Amino acid sequence: MNMEEYRGVWVFIEQRNGELVDVGLELLGAGRDLADKLEVDLCGILLGHNVKDRAKDLFEYGADKVYVIDDPILELYRTETYMKAVGDLVRKYKPEIFLYGATANGKDLASAVATEVMTGLTADTTLLDVNLDKRLFEASRPAFGGNIMATILCKKHRPQMATVRPKVMKKADPQPGREGELIEESISVQEENLKTKVIDIVRDTNKAVNLEEADIIVAAGKGIKDEKGWKMVEELADVLNATVGASRDVVEMGICGHEHQVGQTGATVTPKLYIAIGISGAVQHVVGMQNSELIIAINTDPDAAIFNASHYGVVADAFEIVPLLTEEFRKV
Ligand code: FAD
């Protein structure tokens, strides 16, 4: 492999129904910094149907070039089609670094592309840099339950790829009217040759749980005891316009679904406010919420580990204090 042929920083721009997902814009912010250090172009990769017009937003958020494949076959995300389209672009244009959001689709696509083009992938990173002397991408992520940061290098393959957690990087300030180069490509795949077919789309009718993008999370631990306690937490969340999170124990008790789980095997969240109710503060939970801007814990045990990870702690019975908080916030 001739590594010198690989140049440019790429960002996969995820879109849902034509709306750009925030993490793509955040990665343009982080990618701009890497591209400037390496003195290369920052490029957005935009796939979908009727999405071409969104390229101008990407220029305003820092992209120098946008590669677009606009085709009905890409309207819905499917691993097979997206992997093929992105794999072809990588083989043709040879990027040096390629970033994806660590969303469900981003993680799925990045791992598929890594096998398609035979390169490595660092998953779930939170810190990105480049070593200019060695011209190596340094992607770092928490390891050993968040106790250390592991920096992972991809020395022998290109592109160097990483998925990056949402809400960790900052979007650049948009520059209205900033222009760039739009490069339109096509996909060579035909529907009849695909192994996966979309037969039906069943929308989840439950209130969507989007922990990663929530500004306020009220999270319940085993201390809330049962469905009645969960309802109490939901009521507080409702008046605060918050999303409800949970520890793994609450999920395992069958009180809520896994989509509510925060932690090592759940979501990593960075809201402005995280209220932990009846959560002990096991390391596997804390790694998922420790980067929240403001953490308030409510627990009957003054020695609970959650207080070490919190800015404010309330030693109290949740069943007494939570209804009072709900009542007071309702007045505001
Ligand atoms: P507990 O540890 O039982 O804590 C309950 C707390 O409630 C106690 O501190 C208690 O003092 C308090 N309490 C009791 N009654 C009240 C009351 N009336 N008012 C106020 N407080 C009260 N856990 C996660 O959360 N997320 C993960 O992603 C995750 N991944 C894991 C992965 C692995 C590989 C492993 C081994 C474990 C993982 N866990 C995860 C589990 C984790 O280790 C803990 O078991 C779990 O977080 C504990 O949940 P909890 O705090 O709700 O329960």
From TrEMBL:
CDD domains: ETF_alpha. Keywords: Electron transport, FAD, Flavoprotein, Transport. The keyword rRNA-binding does not apply. It comes from the Bacteria. Transmembrane segments: none annotated. InterPro entries: DHS-like_NAD/FAD-binding_dom, ETF_a/b_N, ETF_a/FixB, ETF_alpha_N, ETF_asu_C, ETF_asu_C_CS, Rossmann-like_a/b/a_fold. PROSITE patterns: ETF_ALPHA. The keyword Transport applies. Residues 9-198 form the Electron transfer flavoprotein alpha/beta-subunit N-terminal domain. Belongs to the ETF alpha-subunit/FixB family. PANTHER family: ELECTRON TRANSFER FLAVOPROTEIN ALPHA, ELECTRON TRANSFER FLAVOPROTEIN SUBUNIT ALPHA, MITOCHONDRIAL. This is Electron transfer flavoprotein subunit alpha/FixB family protein. It comes from Evansella alkalicola. The lineage of its organism: Bacteria, Bacillati, Bacillota, Bacilli, Bacillales.
